[in-house]
Design goal:
alpha+beta; single chain; about 110 residues; about 10% strand
């Protein structure tokens, strides 16, 4: 089961998890970070370093963060605003840098 980053990360983006990820599968949107479910190896290294406890396995997310399971996947499989194609699995966040846009759920979060 891949890990998911919940709403606690919105407007926080501490980046500690990015530094711990051995496979570079945590991508930076505008207001939140996203874990690529195809690239995540389920090692869990990201979870304990998150200062806002936003990361958990998709089967253990809180009820309030359940929408972030599908939304996290959506970030990679659907075209984001201003992009013609989905991000997909580019093989590491470092290769693409900051994406700079978010899914609708995150962009509209108040």
């Amino acid at each position: 089961m891949p890990y998911v980053i919940g709403s606690e990360c919105i407007d926080t983006t501490d980046m500690s998890c990015v530094e711990e990820c051995p496979v570079d599968c945590i991508y930076e949107g505008d207001r939140k970070l996203y874990i690529n479910p195809k690239e995540c190896i389920d090692c869990g290294a990201c979870e304990p370093v998150c200062p806002v406890e936003a990361i958990s396995q998709d089967r253990r997310v809180s009820e309030e963060n359940e929408p972030h399971i599908a939304d996290n996947r959506r970030f990679f499989v659907e075209p984001l605003p201003g992009r013609d194609a989905p991000l997909g699995s580019p093989g590491g966040a470092t290769k693409v840098g900051k994406i700079g846009v978010d899914t609708e759920l995150v962009a509209e979060h108040t």
